[in-house]
Amino acid sequence: MGADSHAVIDASELSASEAYRLLTGVIVPRPIAWITSRSADGVLNLAPFSAFTLVANDPPMVGVNIGLRAGTPKDTAANIEATGEYVIHIPSWSMQHAVHESSEVHPPHVDEAEHLGLATVPSDVVGVPRLRDAPIALECRLDRVVSFGRAGARFTVGEVLRFHIRADLLVDGKIDTVALDPVARIAGPTYARVGETERLRPIVMAITNAPTHG
Ligand SMILES: Cc1cc2nc3c(=O)[nH]c(=O)nc-3n(C[C@H](O)[C@H](O)[C@H](O)COP(=O)(O)O)c2cc1C
Predict the structure, then answer these.
(1) How far apart are CA 100 and CA 119, in angstroms?
(2) Beta-bridge mates of residue 121
(3) In angstroms, rounded to a whole number, what is the distance separating the alpha carbons of residues 104 and 113?
(4) Which domains does the chain have, with CATH numbers?
(5) Pairwise CA distance, residues 127 & 101, whole Å
(6) Residues with beta carbon inside 6 Å of ligand 1?
(7) pLDDT digits (tens, 9 = 90+) for 194-212
(8) Distance between alpha carbon 191 and the CA centroid of its chain, in Å?
(9) What CA–CA distance (Å, rounded) separates 156 from 24?
């Protein structure tokens, strides 16, 4: 413990898995990108990713960090890089079990949406189907993949081409977060739900250029 009773950790002394354990407790709660993608030979894949963030708003772009599994790309990363297309869904709390189960490793020929009994419908502009009952779906086209650090994770950035938003969630161009009731990840099999929300005094921001927060 340091003098102010905080533990002080030298990052250079952490193993990759120790750093992962700390970071997934520090960056909380994380939203979940529930991604459908399709292999080059057409098999649908579904998996959740919580290293998920907004990257740009003009055009709208979002990023997901996809780690390696035993040194090789996960099916989602391989599919996105092969086809350049995918759909990111935002799951609501009632879908938490399906989200969790969809992280199970299956051979590439298994369609995880079908395996979990989740209905899909064709997307408008990408060839990858979307989950019919997800409250939000973002049809994405791959922009670029950037790898940081030594572990080989692929930060996968895509442009959002179409937003599908359940009608009751859209109020004056904004999403009603409480009604969305999104699932968030803490770490491992622990999830969180949006709790109390409080609206403070609005602060006027310069919105003529490209805001990333508002
Ligand atoms: C809620 C949740 C969030 C996850 N977030 C990530 C993530 O951000 N990055 C990652 O590489 N794996 C993440 N995983 C693990 C992947 O979902 C898991 O490796 C999955 O099997 C990948 O499937 P795929 O090989 O079909 O792409 C997460 C798992 C869960 C349950």
Answers:
(1) 17
(2) 130
(3) 12
(4) 27-189 (2.30.110.10)
(5) 24
(6) 32, 45, 47-51, 65-67, 69, 74-76, 99-100, 103, 105, 185
(7) 999 999 999 987 665 555 5
(8) 14
(9) 19
